[in-house]
Design a protein that fits this description.
- The chain is mostly beta strands and about 140 residues long.
- It contains 1 helix and 10 strands.
- It has one helix spanning about 5-20; strands at about 40-45, 45, 50-55, 65, 75, 90-95, 95-100, 105-110, 125, 130-135.
- Strands 1, 2, 5 and 10 form a 4-stranded mixed beta sheet that branches. A 4-stranded antiparallel beta sheet has the order 4-3-6-9, with no helix packed on it. A two-stranded antiparallel sheet has the order 7-8.
């Protein structure tokens, strides 16, 4: 005759399964190394809030991205939250839109040349020795 498992046994099996799946941990060794990268973006000397910043490696690897806060500060992410970007030379694009009482409009709050890889004049070399980035946009 077979007995039904006790409630505590079922709970222990479920908890063990959750811990086993959740603790797979660590960075994938096949991913390229990244370096911490954070900074500020300004236009005409004022912070650019809610901007999307993209760092495209010149070598064609995975880009890093970040979103600026109300003071224009951002932290870049490539593979996992705030891990930075792949070291080396990057083409940089920035998209930012005007805020209105009704929400965000589709009108750019910065010159549109910054929004496209082909037209953006921004380039940046990122290394461990220069983790702080300043992006000063002009007309």
């Amino acid at each position: 005759m077979m007995r039904a498992p006790h409630f505590s046994s079922v709970v222990m099996i479920l908890l063990g399964s959750i811990l086993w799946v959740g603790c797979g941990g660590g960075k994938d060794p096949d991913l390229p190394e990244t370096v911490s990268a954070a900074g500020i973006v300004t236009y005409q000397g004022k912070p650019v809030p809610e901007a999307t910043i993209m760092f495209y490696p010149v070598q064609g690897r995975k880009p890093g991205s970040g979103k600026s806060d109300a003071s224009g500060k951002f932290t870049l992410t490539t593979f996992s939250k705030n891990d930075g970007v792949i070291p080396g030379d990057h083409k940089v694009t920035i998209n930012a839109y005007e805020s209105t009482p009704q929400g965000v409009s589709m009108k750019s709050s910065i010159p549109e040349k910054y929004s496209n890889q082909k037209s953006s004049p921004l380039t940046m070399s990122v290394s461990e020795s220069q983790p702080e980035i300043t992006l000063e946009l002009v007309d």
